Amino acid sequence: MWTFDGDISSSCDECGEVHVVPISDFNNECYGGEYHQNGMGQENNYELLFEFNCTKCGSEIQLKFDATEYPVDVLSYVIDNTQGASCENKPDIKYLPEHEEIYLFPEPKLIISESRIITDVGLLSSNIPELIRFLSQNPEYLHQISPREFEEIIAEIFRSKGFEVALTASTRDGGKDIIAVHRNELGIDTKYFIECKRYAQSNKVGVELIRSLHGVRNTKNGPNKVILATTSTFTSGAIDFAQNQATSEWDITLKDYHDILAWMRSY
User: Fold this and answer.
1) 7-28: per-residue pLDDT in tens?
2) Is 154 in a helix, a strand, or coil?
3) Measured between alpha carbons, how far is 50 from 64 in angstroms, rounded to an integer?
4) Contact yes or no for 123/116 (Cβ under 8 A)
């Protein structure tokens, strides 16, 4: 198994300002592909997207790469479809150890030392609840955790509220980092897909990702509801789609930085 890796360096087409964005900040969507019966099996296609405004001139920039995995576990090619900037490089990949597969909560992961920041891996041990408590009191560190840690935090919060939770593998999630199922007192199950985006504060979640999640909800065996949780905020277009353009206002729930902080403090 593998995941996308590296940093993308780009220069604004308008003013030449250089921006460096880690692949972990990109929206990574797998939209499937055909099965080559007479070839080497399944083909998977990916879209990696990061939208922002130039920090110098304010121009809109869309870093976008389309990638194909064929055969499975081999990245055959990556196409640069960036708009508003010129990229100096393309996404790399790294292979993951076998233990980073799907697993069910509770499975403890990381905890923070009382005196040091959480990204110092040498000082971490296995306790997500301690990490949640630390961040609820020190929210300025929330944007310094990894995307995977953020997923683990959200999964643990839902588990603590009585949900049965599955955290998917760290790649090819197809719009569901977390699957959460809740059974009410009448024995009726409700299924949620939760997408987690650990974005910088300046990187708002755009409408394209919300549209994609809405599509996931309407697939076979899809969820009753999708939730997008982010350490950032949402563009006006994203909010409008969730509230006014989706099939129902009940389809999608958007939770931003302030909501996540409230969740952690109520944990």
Assistant:
1) 999 999 999 999 998 888 887 8
2) helix
3) 7
4) yes
pLDDT tens per residue across span 216-228: 766 666 788 899 9
Tokens of 42: 């399944």
> 193 forms bridges with which residues in the sheet?
179, 226
51 contacts 57 by C-beta, under 8 angstroms:
no
Spatial distance between the Cα atoms of 100 and 61, rounded to a whole number of angstroms? 33
Give the C-alpha distances (Å, rounded to integers) separating 187 from 66, 180, 190.
Answer: 43, 15, 10
Type of residue numbered 238: A
CA atoms within 13 Å, Cβ hemisphere of 86: 7
CA-based Rg of the chain, rounded to a whole angstrom? 19
Residue spans of beta strands (DSSP E) within 133-263: 164-167, 178-183, 189-197, 225-230, 252-255
